[in-house]
Amino acid sequence: MKKLLFFLLTATLLCSCGPKRFYEEISPVDKKGWHQDSLLTFRIDITDSTQYYDFYLFVRNTNDYAMQNFYVFFTTEFPNGFKSQDTLGFVLCDKYGNWKGKGHGYLKEQQFLFKPNVRFAHCGTYTFTVQQAMREEKLKGISDFGIALYEHQQ
To answer: Does domain 21-151 have CATH number 1.10.12?
Structure first.
């Protein structure tokens, strides 16, 4: 009985020691296609400028996505009004057309580590805007895009 209790307590402690999620939001994309002018916006309130985070991006795609890569324009607006923009690329399938990521059947999801061990220098609201950067005016096959911040573990 003591061994069983010890095992259960140890298993509970080990399972609860993963990274703590600070923020996560996954936004759906128009089912008819992600138009070039359509923006996804995420707002995060940072109250502790000393905390470090691991910054992840999520992409969900369907079998209707016709390309190997996916590109977005990723804009960050800081609490002081300063803006920066990155062009980010994601590899969604290998050169043989096999989807990467998790999922069964029609829908696949991938999580990408965007910035590990990042600290936000200013307290306040950070606004992240995502725009698809492919050559198609209306991009089919991307179903969701999201971001997440997890407290960095040493």
So the answer is: no
